[in-house]
Each structure stands twice: as structure tokens, then as C-alpha cells.
Amino acid sequence: MTPDEFRELGHALVEWVARYREDLPGLPVMSAVRPGDIRAQLPATPPEAPGALQALLPLLDSVVLPGITHWNHPRFFAYFPSKTHLASVLADLVCAGLGAQGMSWQTSPAATEVEEVMLEWLRQLLGLPLAFSGVLQDTASTATLVALLCAREKSTGLALCRGGLQQAHAPLVVYTSEMAHSSVEKAALLAGFGRDYVRFLPTDAAHALQVEALASAVQADVAAGLQPCAVVATTGTTSTTAMDPVAAVAEVARRHALWLHVDAAMAGTAMVCPELRWMWAGVEAADSVVFNPHKWMGVGFDCTAYFVRDVGHLLSVMSTHPSYLRTKADAEVKNFRDWGIPLGRRFRALKVWFVLHSLGADGLRAAVRRDVALAQGLAARVDAAPGWERCAPVPLQTVCVRHLLPGASAAEEDAHNLALAEAVNATGEAYVTPAVVKGRRLIRISIGALDTAQPDVDAVWALLQRCAADVGR
Ligand SMILES: Cc1ncc(COP(=O)(O)O)c(C=O)c1O
Q1: Domain locations along the chain
Q2: Which among 214, 216, 405, 424 counts the fewest CB atoms within 10 Å?
Q3: How far apart are the CA of 45 and the centre of ligand 1, in A?
Q4: How close is the Cα of 181 to the center of ligand 1, in Å?
């Protein structure tokens, strides 16, 4: 493709994306295709001859779009928001156009230095202390794995330089709550702790970690000759946005020299609002913190910010120095390949820059406050509605509800709520997530797509009520 051909098709594709965003409210939120439907429309073998890309344009409409669930739809209330501002889309275009690989400072100094500045901006926006330095990762799952690898190496005095876990003098233990995201368990298993040494601690009525249970579990493990290693506290759990008491957890961590990792994958964005920072009070004592600009902040997937206190330790765990990667500048610069697992790194910081520049701190705060207010309004309506139960506090933008079936067993009521969520999603008018919390089914309505406004929240609430009547019939 020549630059001129790129220009022509590129303009057509920008137009396609712009039209897609304009048309979004009229599209069914959840894709209704069946497994295999999309695959069946593609040739089974690759093309032999070169083809004009123009031929693919109509296929975006006929093949791809029906198989897309629209995360930027104003009535997307599922999972957690993962919204993408158009500013971020444009930055991704530039990133791909540059095709730069920022593994080392020298391999594209701008990729490293823009990332340094963006992480510093994010640190300031979230109100984290100066002691934290940040780096971009692909996902929170990766960042939490890095955190637990660093914790493991802290506890063992860098055993990776010797016999590793094979020679550990006592099994290392990781603590988290029963509500922690599955990525915490996955990271602990991948880091070699073993399922027998991951403690999922009970939570209180608000689904937040019970710190007394943490303290007792640590004491019991010490008495049993085990070595407590790390605790992962969550600010904004996935099921209900519960807030673990970070300050109290930090105190236990300090007493027992545990690594404290704070998972604020979703809620981190809310910390741009000073009035919401109580949610992670005590975070300044953490060893590492993760939050996802690719969730509620509007930076397109994937983009995770990982902050650490002890950069030297991170480098000790993550660095490699093969001759072919060494450069003259190494002593003076950051080589972000040494701050995480992958060697190759794309220029993710560009989309953070575009989004922060175009929204400003004011725009970020306004978006968070809009969604928190919408969620508060919905929570009040649920509370006032006979036959409905709100299943968790609403500190942020997710409202968890259950439709009650008087006289029915818990199992029947659970089945009814699952059927209800599926009925809502099948309409294509909105998309919600059914979940199970402490053995009971509930429905999560998670607000935060780009253009969600009061009429959209009104619509999903009306739809839930309509479907509840239909499903119950
Ligand atoms: C609290 C929490 N932590 C971690 C994750 C995993 O995020 P990622 O997809 O970036 O790995 C999620 C995803 O929703 C989450 O809610």
C-alpha cells in the first residue's frame, strides 16, 4: 500500500469509525450471533493473490459488526466499563503508524519519555505520594503477576538468583479476600505459590475483607512454620465494588513484613476526585498499586498503570542484560523492558496523553461524578421499589440488585434472576451481568460507558422491571 492509497482508505475508515460511533445508540448492545456464525463467513484458506483492501470495507458491516458487543454503547451496563474516547482511537492510529518498539530508551526515546511523564501525571491525578514510580503494562492481570513475583523475591532475598522456590526454607503464603478478582489467584498460581498457600479470607456484610481474619490467618501460618509473603487488597471489587480497608491491611502487612499490593483496577480512576480518595485511605503504605486507565478512564484497551515504591527491587526481579540489548545510554535512562515481563513494548503512553490532554483533570472528574450520581439515583429507586433488593453498598457506579420471588426458595430465586439477566440481554436494549456473590445470584448494573445519561439508566431499570414481570409469568 502506498502512502496515497493509505490516505484514501484511511479517510474512509476514519469515516467508518465516526459513523459507527454515531450509530451506536441504535445497535443491539450484546451481539446475538451464535458460536461459529462469524467463522463460517470467512474463507477457510488464506488468499493466494494480493487483494484490494477496499473489498474488506463492506465486510466490516456485514461480517464484523454483527459479532461485536458494543462496549461503548450508552446502554452497556455489563462487567465494568471499558470505554474508549475517540482521542484514544486517534492515538492508537498514530502508534500503529509509527510502528515503534519502545523496549529500551534508545529504541524510541519518545516512547519511554512520554510514558515517564504520563505515569507521573497519573500519579498526581490519583493523589499517590511522590515515592511511587509508574510503568504501563498491558493488563491488571500482568501487573498483579509482577507484584506477586516481586513479593516472592522480597521474601526470599532474591532467591531467583540462587535455587528459587525449589530451595525455599518454608512455603510462602499469599492472602486476599474471597472477593478478589480471579487474576489474583491466577497470578499467585503462576508465581508458584501453589493453591494450598493462597488464603481467600472472609468478607463483612459490605463484602470487604475482614482484617481480623487476615491477622489471625497470618498468625496461624507463622505458628505452622509457614512464611507469610504478600497480601492483595482490592479497592473496588469486581462483583460489588467493595472497598477493602487498605490502612488496616497495611498495618498487618507492616507488622509481618508482607508485600502489600492494592488492586484498584476499576476504582483507581475514581481517585481523580479528592472526595473519593477515602476509598483507598492507607494506599501510601502499599508496595505496589495497579489501576486500569482502560476501564473507566476512557483510554482504549489495553492500558494498565502499575505503580511501585521500590524501583530497584522491581529491576532486580525483572531485568536481563544480554549483550544485544545493552546501549550507551543505559546508565542515564529508564529501559522499561526491565520494569515488566515482555521485552517488546508498544507506544501505549500516546493514548494516555491524548486522553488526558483532551479531557483534562476537570473532564475526568466530571465523568466519574456523573456516573457516581447516576448510580446513587438508581440505588435509591431500587431501595424504594417493592419486590427488589439492593445487594451491596454503592460507593461507585455499580448497583447490584436481586428481584425477589416471595415464597420461592433461594435456588428458585437465583434461577429467576439468572433468567432475568439473560432476558434483558437478549432484548439487545441493554447489557447487564449476572453474578454469584456468597452463593446467591444477583444482577450487576455497572454504569460508565462514554455517553450513558439519565434516560439510559431509566431505560435499563424499566427494562429490568418489564423482563422481571415477563420471566416470572
Ligand atoms: C478488581 C479487578 N482486578 C483485576 C481485573 C483484571 O483486569 P485486566 O483485564 O486488566 O487483567 C479486573 C477486571 O475486571 C478487576 O475488576
Answers
A1: 3-68, 100-346, 362-472
A2: 216
A3: 36
A4: 6
